[in-house]
Write a structure and sequence with these properties.
It is built from 12 helices and 4 strands, in the order E-E-H-H-H-H-H-E-E-H-H-H-H-H-H-H. By secondary structure, the chain is of the alpha+beta class. Among the domains are: 38 residues, no CATH class; 65 residues. A 4-stranded antiparallel β-sheet has the order 1-2-3-4. A hairpin with a 5-residue loop joins strand 3 and strand 4. Helix 1 packs antiparallel against helix 5 and helix 3 packs antiparallel against helix 4.
Length: 318
């Protein structure tokens, strides 16, 4: 089975070890002790094939349809609302990111052409290094831009379908290796519903080891889904760009994103109904601020001063 990424997770287990010593009579005595040791367990992300890609596309389409039927807006409708309000991006931002995308694909084509050359000159090699650095920085900028744009559309049918699909990928790409070297699906080898039920059971067990494994699978596969890399070498390179490294020594800092993703996957997304209520106080405040000058004018009016000094009112106060 082709692998996209492999990693180890250490588990503290009680291990029985035999210790042989000699007594005073020179006889060998074997004593069995129970010790706590950290044991490494191997896990890997399976490299998806064509059939998995087809199943994922169908799953996404089904979840998208469910969200629309439930009343969620599509991205196109939300974009139309943004356009009516002037758009989510300014003209300079549109021009900037349009140029970035154009340059990215041009540099990528040049990189592929140079890599396909059988004989490379010294200038070609230098240009290859430059292109790799340029593409790396551009990819980072475009990924940040796409993530910021996705945050604007958190309450759409597409976002819900995407999150459900990421969970589907987590359930289907997560694998473990047994002590005898046998590879098996981490979330059982059954239907999508059976895998999801098993996933729920594991998350409810409150096992620190299982929680860490699931978090790593969730984060790494979510990262793969966004980056769109399709081989282990590119995947490791993308992780290094995020300062995670090949041994994932910095993954603990990145797992906060996994926690947010896990909560988002478990919760059913719905349109925010509190927004109109939150805007109402602002409108009332604006109306009060507009009326404030009129009140000040009335206070400076001599007639209003006479009214305040009305003998009847002063008599009531006395």
């Amino acid at each position: 089975m082709k692998k996209l990424y492999t990693f180890k997770q250490y588990k503290t287990e009680k291990v029985k070890e035999k210790e042989t010593t000699e007594n005073e009579n020179g006889e060998k005595v074997t004593v069995e002790k129970e010790l706590e040791k950290k044991v490494a367990r191997d896990f890997f992300i399976r490299r998806p094939n064509r059939r998995l890609y087809d199943d994922a596309e169908l799953y996404y389409a089904v979840k998208l349809s469910e969200g629309i039927k439930a009343g969620l807006l599509t991205k196109a409708l939300l974009e139309k609302r943004y356009e009516n309000d002037g758009g989510s991006l300014s003209d300079p931002e549109i021009e900037r990111y349009g140029t970035l995308y154009s340059e990215f694909y041009e540099n990528q084509r040049e990189l592929i052409d140079l890599e396909d050359k059988n004989e490379k000159s010294e200038n070609d090699k230098n240009r290859l290094d430059d292109l790799k650095d340029i593409l790396s920085s551009t990819r980072t900028a475009l990924t940040a831009f796409e993530m910021s744009q996705q945050n604007l559309f958190d309450q759409t049918a597409e976002v819900r379908a995407r999150n459900k699909t990421i969970l589907w990928w987590v359930l289907n790409l997560s694998y473990a290796v047994a002590e005898d070297g046998k590879e098996y699906p981490f979330f059982t080898d059954g239907s999508s519903e059976e895998k999801l039920e098993y996933y729920d059971r594991l998350t409810e067990e409150e096992d620190d080891f299982l929680d860490e494994v699931i978090k790593k699978f969730t984060y790494l596969i979510s990262f793969w889904y966004v980056s769109k890399v399709d081989n282990e070498e590119d995947f490791k390179a993308m992780l290094e760009e995020q300062d995670l490294g090949g041994d994932l020594e910095n993954l603990d800092n990145a797992l906060e994103a996994s926690d947010r993703m896990d909560e988002e996957l478990k919760s059913e997304e719905a349109p925010d109904e509190e927004t109109p209520d939150e805007e109402t106080p602002d409108e009332e405040t604006a109306n009060k601020e507009q009326d404030a000058p009129r009140q000040e004018d009335s206070q400076s009016d001599p007639q209003s001063e006479n009214t305040e000094n009305n003998p009847d009112k002063s008599g009531d106060e006395n």
